[in-house]
From TrEMBL:
Class of enzymatic activity (EC top level): ligase
Domain of life: Bacteria
All residue ranges annotated as the AMP-binding enzyme C-terminal domain in the record: 519-598
Domain AMP-dependent synthetase/ligase per the UniProt entry, residue ranges: 70-463
Protein name: Acetate--CoA ligase
Key words of the record: Acetylation, ATP-binding, Ligase, Nucleotide-binding
MF annotations from Gene Ontology: acetate-CoA ligase activity; AMP binding; ATP binding
EC nos: 6.2.1.1
Any Gene Ontology biological process: acetyl-CoA biosynthetic process from acetate
Domain Acetyl-coenzyme A synthetase N-terminal: 12-68
Length: 635
């Protein structure tokens, strides 16, 4: 059916118009024709952004894993579902077929059941990029348990916060992980985290690095022997369309991380449909997304979207620099990858190493290149286009969020003419709006404002776990009847969108969202620190890096500043993870504050970015005198 696979620009416009004129009919057709239901829905959509409440396909019954696995067995049983490429290129690639994946998921689901996991229970998954990670998500979904994956780069503290927030009773982890030439003791991190998590009764441990680890009696169990015993048969639990599928945490500008809740049917339809169109996926393609499954990109576009389409999805355990900077291109050549999806920060890091690493490889299999996670700068876009795609593989710059579940603004490759740094046009069914400072929608092209979405789409998150009020306050309160993304954007003369970046206190570092508040809280834990303010500043590889302004309790602090800097970063590593470390720490005697006591970050951002020519209006400051002092001592 043509609506499911869009092939040229005119068709995009036709289908787009249809999708926004009558969204219910549009999504119902997609749902009818491309998915497996145990029972069809009573209502396609009911919604109220004021409450807010959004329900898609209410009354329908299904299991997402029957859509990702069972229904492919007859026609694609021997096709590779997951192509696992290990950290060490000398270790063999694993081809896991649809039949094998189905059996592994059933075994794992049976293990979870035997451990007392029931429908609706939360299971925390803290694993490296090994096949068990994908299998464990699907195993949870098979029995209706809600998975909460925590990226395995987060610290024990961050893990504990997330486990407790959603009250997980089981944790799935591994003895350790490989990362380039290093190994990481994941189990030790879990042990530390669990000291603060009384609700966790069971830890299942996959073996990956064969290291000696501590196994706590009565709590910890090796996974493999349990899997060996388990049956590879298993029926999928019948779920309601709006039952939660998973929780995934994302940083907010303040407070604890937000556990975004995605529900089954809408998420399935949206990830599957976007995957097919944004990557123009065809039956024998080999698709590779380099994200970690610990982030939404991995959930939607390594696991659910590709598998719902019966695709071959590559899972890479390692890093782009190991054993050398040609690793990505080595994998593309080896498996004849057709679609390659990565982050601007990776592109910039690889571009810096020069084209020699690229030139040794045959990249002619590539048909579509994608980017996600942060704005891509023009230079990186051209490097990607010239050296990787050889101007033959269109770049899809895909804008979306953990909250949106799937891609929202993007070119359709071979249909939408691309434009460097522009995510271009809304995806089918998506109705963006730009809002001005008076909370009015800016109509017409050549506009610049805050990016909102006017109408529900199936993939949107339904709530924040345990805190619906926060969901409402964060996303539905800034503008009436609109979902507010937290991003700024402009619309050019032909209606193409360019994302200009966050307009709140979230900073995107190497594509990872970091809230300033939790980092400041960590810095303030240092006994010598009185107060701190964190801002982002431009960085040529990471996109943004973090700059900390720190006031010490005693101005005559005798310890060396460099030691203090190390100690502060150590605390951040323990509390959040190494991704949140500060690149620069400036000790200062004051921070610019408004009369209501709010730190004026706008000024600090400009100073950190070495852009002090126009600091704007500082007259409302309580202590304008500190500004010059900060400028004079800037790093
Ligand atoms: C999928 C993902 C969401 C934030 C989002 C925005 C930034 C993502 C982007 C982009 C410019 C793009 N972002 N894609 N900015 N161009 N193509 O990354 O989800 O981790 O929740 O981050 O990332 O600022 O608001 P998540």
């Amino acid at each position: 059916m043509s609506n499911y696979h869009i092939k040229h620009l005119e068709e995009y416009f036709q289908v787009y118009r249809k999708s926004v004129r009558n969204p219910e009919n549009f999504w119902e057709e997609i749902a009818e024709e491309h998915f497996l239901w145990r029972k069809k829905w009573d209502t396609v959509l009911s919604w109220d952004f004021k409450k807010p409440e959004v329900k898609w396909f209410e009354g329908a019954k299904l299991n997402i894993t029957e859509n990702c696995l069972d229904r492919h067995l007859a026609t694609r049983g021997d096709k590779t579902a997951i192509l696992f490429e290990p950290n060490d290129p000398k270790e063999d690639t694993q081809h896991i077929t649809y039949t094998q994946l189905y059996q592994r998921v059933n075994k794992f689901a049976n293990v979870l059941k035997s451990q007392g996991v029931e429908k609706g229970d939360r299971v925390c998954i803290y694993l490296p990029m090994i096949p068990e990670l994908a299998v464990s998500l699907l195993a949870c979904a098979r029995i209706g348990a809600i998975h909460s994956v925590v990226f395995a780069g987060f610290s024990a503290n961050a893990l504990a916060t997330r486990i407790n927030d959603s009250d997980c009773k089981v944790v799935i982890t591994s003895d350790g992980s490989y990362r380039g030439a290093k190994t990481i003791d994941l189990k030790k991190i879990v042990d530390d985290a669990l000291e603060d998590c009384p609700g966790v009764k069971t830890v299942l441990v996959a073996k990956r690095i064969q290291s000696e680890i501590n196994m706590k009696d009565g709590r910890d169990q090796w996974l493999q022997p349990l899997l060996d015993e388990a049956s590879e048969e298993g029926t999928a639990t019948v779920m309601d369309a709006e039952d939660p599928l998973f929780i995934l945490y994302t940083s907010g500008s303040t407070g604890t991380p937000k556990g975004m809740v995605h529900t089954i049917a809408g998420y399935m339809i949206y990830t599957a449909y976007t995957f097919k169109n944004v990557f123009q996926y065809r039956e024998n393609d080999v698709y590779w997304c380099t994200a970690d499954i610990g982030w939404i990109t991995g959930h939607s576009y390594i696991v659910y979207g590709p598998l719902a389409n019966g695709a071959t999805t590559v899972m890479f355990e390692g890093v782009p620099s190991y054993p050398d900077y040609g690793r990505f291109w080595d994998i593309v050549e080896k498996h004849k990858v057709t679609q390659f999806y990565t982050a601007p920060t990776a592109i910039r890091a690889l571009a810096k190493e020069g084209v020699e690493h690229v030139e040794q490889h045959d990249l002619s299999s590539l048909k579509v290149l994608g980017t996600v996670g942060e704005p891509i700068n023009e230079e990186a876009w051209h490097w990607y286009d010239d050296n990787i795609g050889k101007k033959n593989a269109p770049i899809v710059d895909t804008w979306w969020q953990t909250e949106t579940g799937g891609i929202m603004i993007t070119p359709i490759p071979y249909a939408t003419p691309t434009k460097p740094t522009y995510a271009t046009l809304p995806f089918i069914g998506i109705q963006p709006a730009l809002m001005d400072e008076n909370a009015q929608e800016i109509k017409g092209n050549q506009a610049d404002g805050r990016l909102c979405i006017k109408f529900p789409w199936p993939g949107m998150a339904r709530t924040i776990w345990g805190n619906h009020q926060r969901y409402k306050d964060t996303y539905f309160s800034a503008y009436e009847n609109m979902y507010f993304s937290g991003d700024g954007a402009l619309r050019d003369e032909v209606g193409y969108y360019r994302i200009t970046g966050r307009v709140d206190d979230v900073i995107i570092v190497s594509g990872h969202n970091l809230g300033t508040a939790p980092i400041e809280d960590a810095v303030n834990e240092h006994p010598a620190v009185a107060e701190s303010a964190i801002v982002g500043f431009p960085h040529d590889v990471k996109g943004n890096a973090l700059y900390g302004y720190v006031i010490l309790k005693e101005t005559g602090e005798s310890r060396k500043h460099d030691n203090l800097r190390k100690e502060i970063n150590q605390i951040i590593t323990e509390q959040i993870g190494p991704i949140a470390k500060l690149d620069k720490i400036q000790f200062t005697n004051g921070l610019p504050k408004t009369r209501s006591g709010k730190i004026m970050r706008r000024i600090l951002r400009k100073i950190a970015g070495k852009d002090t020519s126009n600091l704007g209006d500082t007259s409302t400051l309580l202590n304008p005198e500190c500004v010059q002092d900060i400028i004079d001592n800037a790093l």
